Structure formats: C-alpha cells, structure tokens
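Morning!

This is the sequence you dropped in the shared folder:
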Amino acid sequence: MILASADSSLKAGMLRTLKARIDRIVHYSSVYDAAMRRHRREVRSRRKSTYAKIMAAVTLRATGGTIRCLAAFRKLERKASGNVSGVSTVVEAGEGSEIVWEHVKGDLDIYITQDGHGVSLRKVLEAEILNYEQGEPTKKAHVTPAGRKVAPKPGVTETKHTASELAAMGGTAETAPVLRPKQSKYVVKVTFDARQISKTKAQTEVMLLLIPEGEEGQFYCQSALRIRTVLVYTGKDGKEQLQANLGKVMEEIEDVRVRGLRYCASADTFVGQDPDQPLKDGDRNVAVEFFMPADMCSHFGLFGHGGGRDPTKCFCTHCKCRMDQRHTLFQLVRLPTSETVGEVAKAYGIKVETLWMLNAGFDPTGQLPPAELTDKALFFKTLPLK
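The structure's back. Tokens below.
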C-alpha cells in the first residue's frame, strides 16, 4: 500500500533498495522450479522402468487390488501432493503383467486341458524350491502384549541371493547372509476343490503347497501367499471331468515322486534340469513326497469308483465290494435247530475261523484257545436259543 500511494520517483527508489531481495526471490524460485522439474523427470523415469512395471503387476495380484483401485489411488496421490504420481499407471501395470506372462509361458509350460488350462507341476516345484533355498529365513511369530501368538506376514516380494551374488560378497561369515537350510527331501501338499460359480457350472482349482521340514518350514508354509495354483478348469463337478482334466497333473506327480528333482550348481537352478543325468561338482538330487487331502467326493472321482453315483454300485474307495454284496457283521442269529459251526458258517458265507473269532474273542489260526474254552459247547455260545 505504501508503494501504491507513492509517486513514481519514490517508487523507483524503493524498488532500487529491494532489488537485491527481489533478485534472491526470483533466483530461489527458478532454482526450485528447476529442481522440481528434475525430480518429476526422475519419478517418471523410475515409474516407467521394467522393474517398476513388474512390481506394480505383482503387488496388484498379491493384494487383490483392481485396476479401478489403482486409478483411484493415483488420482488421490496427485491431488494431495500436487506432483507427478510415483505409482505406475494402468497401462504401465498392464505392461508389467504382459512381461510376467511371457516369462511364465516360457518357464512353466502352459498346456490346455479338456475344460481349462494348467502349468507344469514339475516346473512350479523346481521354481518354488529354488526360491525357498535362495531366500532369507522367515520371520518368527511374535507374542502380542495380550499374550496372543501371531504368525509373521510374508512380504509380497522376498530378498533372494543367487550363487553369483554370494560369491561377490566374499563368502565370509561377516558378509554372507543367512539363508534357509537346504534339504534332501521336501513334502508337498496337493489339493483340489470345486466351487459353484453358476447354477450349472463349477470351477475346480488344483493347488500345491511346499512344506519344508523343521521350525523354518512351519513358519514358511503358514501363509496363503505360499500356495501355488497349477490347474484351473470349469464344468460339472463329476468323475468324468475330474479324470479328463487331472490326467497330466497325476502323471507329473508320479514322475516327480519317482525321479525327484535335480539342482545344477553351475546354473544355480532346479528349473529345466534332468534328474537322470549324472551329477557334477556341487549338484544334488532332491526327493519329493506328496500327499493329497480331499473330501470323499474328490476321492471317489479321482479313483474312479465308490460313492452313491458309482455305476457299478461300489460304496467305498478301499475295495470293489458292491452294495448288495455287503455282509452285516455282529448280528444276532437265532438257530431253530442244533447245527455245527461249519454248517452255520457255510449257510451265511463266513469262514469257520471268522465265526470262531467273533464268538470266542481270539483268532484260532494264530493262537491256541484258552484252557477254559476247550469245551465246544462252552465255546460256541450261539447254539440253540429258544
């Protein structure tokens, strides 16, 4: 206001005295603008890197986020900060997904089934065991102030140490990181389950989980992020669809169980190695044991018989007895006349030894009867009951 009310000569004098301050303000403003422009260029450059695109795709998949959530988050970030967003755009995240997909197709052998698609179970196991052995130990569970034991949450990505990185560190106890223990045998859980997705269709997903031994293995497998999906197919939840789609998975399970896996020290990998080749320096074979927990319906479909829908009327997976051929044991039978043990056994289709064992409480083919049961009248307690 003072400057506005002054005449031209006074204005000129006052501006001359403030020139140094004005020059400093202009200089600082130009330096700030230059620094911010350089910062924005660096943010854009980092965001458009291949690593950032892949991390955006992996983070979205691991956290269950959607493209709409990503776009909304970027909008909020730009509005609050007033600067360029450091989060990848929707297009850049899509490019990262394409990069991951191309590597998956090259490494995991995607194949088509009758009603779906899957990846090679052997390749998935080779990559999973390699990731396990190259990683640092899982964080242990911690106890909250309330006394509750909480399992650790694994990160979306983990720190890996390849053989070349370990060699560059010098290999001393001070510089070498602590890695997970290497094992000669791993246990793998394979499970499959169907979920109804419409009135007429279900989706079945085949998953595997690596379970290492020891305390480290317990911490490692206690997370849904460790589960790997190897096959997805749609259709009816029936025996025909299950056997038509799980054929390759079952073949690979048997192949891995019999031949195992092979680690190549020169390539520092399990992937793509033939277990039948001779071992070189540093190479080793790894055995794998499988177990497949499932409900009875899955077992009926997997083995091909058993259950209420079996056309041959087999009622369980452990034998091929039919429903109309079952014997009802431990049933009280009243004999109208005096008959021998052999005659009763023949009439009801039971061996004499079996009938003897059920009534006496011991197997006559494996041991002698007690002295007090040598009398046949005392031994066979089901003789004529009026």
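Headline: The chain has three domains: 2-104, 109-141+178-294, 327-386.

More detail when I'm at my desk.
O.
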